[in-house]
Every structure is written in structure tokens, then in C-alpha cells.
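Anyone have C-alpha cells for Permease? Sequence:
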Amino acid sequence: MNLSAHPVVASLTPVFLLVALGFMAGRLQWIRDAAIKDLSNLVFLLLIPALLFRTMSAVRFEELDLRPLLAYFLAAGVLLAVLIGWRGFNRRSVVLALTGVFSNMVMIGITLVELAYGKAGLVTLLTLVSVHALLLLTTATVVLELAVARENRQAGAEQPHLLATTWSAFKSALIHPVPLPIICGLLFAQTGWSLPTVIDRPLQLLGNAFGPLALVLVGITLARTPLTGHWQSALWATLSKNLVLPVMVGVSAWAFGITGLPLTVMVVAAALPTGANVFLFAQRYEVAQETTTASMGVSTVAALLTLSLVMLVMSWW
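Reply: yep, here.
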């Protein structure tokens, strides 16, 4: 048997090679620290919106199956609650729980799923992506604000109104370079129109540039990630994110009667390493920043094995 021809190997190898090349570029300092933010802005503000809008601009509402949304976020919500309850209700607990639940669906997931499962798989993934940050990050914001309010009450300090904070978090998550172009693309698709070639072609070229650049950027970021001193917490977060969540999502999907390609894409999405948005929460709430960074790094490195295992199991399902 030609191992290199196996679909799991064929789809994972280019992903991890590009991450490895980015890691090498980061270690050799071919990309300066100041340029990383500019590259990130290029990916998130130009390339991602072009890819997401173009992909969803041909998808009709009647073609969408919303059961994966219910199944995935039920499992993610339950795991988030269990992890918070396990560590106790405080800011650190919430941030570390989010680290064990929030997947890197955009930077790694989009390219991987398209390589492995084609456009049909990508539509299922983008359905999840469209509300992934909106639901999980808004929920995390509300829970974190409740934790901060509890701490402030204990300290006798004033706290902004929770509804105002929640509304602000919801708006920030909605008016964002990921969900907004997906929603706009879906709305455009319902008109029955087709994108003119002079618009469609540039969007296609921008979208094609997203995958390689995003994966190289993951590697560059990984090269700048300190992993020492936080191994125990990072390993617990990695176990939760890379293995426990995909099992829970698989069970939840089975309970909803989801089978075939949508089930596979959901489980693979759940097995992706921790997404970078979690660090923004650690930074904003000034808690567990080094642990979160280390967890993202360990989760990404471990995904070389855990993601391969999950995809292999799902290929036999």
C-alpha cells in the first residue's frame, strides 16, 4: 500500500509542511516581529473575507443542514461548563476552559478540510465557522464578566452593566472578518445572481493565497511561542481540545442522526488545535496569558499526531 496516497496523509502533509516552513522562517527570523501583525492583518482583513464570501455566495439556504450547529455547540457548551466547574468559577478557570474548547477552524481548518473533503466538506465547516466565534466568544465574554463582577463585588468595586458588556461583545463578534463575509455571501446567494467574472476571479485569487499564507503564519507564531514552565496546564488543555471535544462532538452528532461527510467534518473540526482568539481573552482579562500561549503551542504540535489519528478513525467510520 502506498502510504503517501492515503487521503489522510495526502491532506495533512501539505498542511504541516507549510506550518513547519513557517516555524523555520520564524526561528531564523526571516520575518520580523513587527511584520507578523501586518501579515495577520492581511490574512484576516483581506484574504479570509474574499475566500469566505466567494465560497458561500453559491450556497442556498435550503442546501444548509443546521443540525451540525446544534450538535457541535451543544457538545462544546457542555465541555466548557464542565471545565469551568472543574477548576472553579473565576477568570483563570474560564480562560483555560475556553482554551480546551475553541478550535482553530479558520487558520488551519479551512485549508485542511478543503484538501481532505472538497467543497462539500468546506460548506459544512463554514456553517460551523459562521457562528463558532459568535457563540463561544460571546458566551465566554458573558461568563468572564460574571466572574469579574463576582470578584469586584468581593473587593467592593463598581462593575459596568452586564447587558451592555454582552451587547458590545455580540456586536464585536458579529461585525468581524469571519462571520460577516459568510453572512453576506449567503445573502447574496439567495438572490440567484452569479458573481461577474471581473469580481469572481480576483476573489478566487485572493482566496487561493489564504491557505499557504495562513499556515505559514501559524508556524511563525508557533516559533515565537514559549512552551516552558506551563507544561501541565498545557497538556490538560491539549487533551481536552484535541481528543475529548472530538469524542463529545461525535457522540452529539450521532444523537442528532448526523452521518457521512457532515459527521466527519464536525469531528475533524473539533479535533483542530486551539485557536488564537483565546489568547486575546487572556490578554484582555489579564489572566493566564503565558499558560494560554503555551497551550496553543502544545495543542498545535500535538495535532500532528492527534489530528492524524482522528482523521484516520473517521476515514474508517
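The mean pLDDT is 84.
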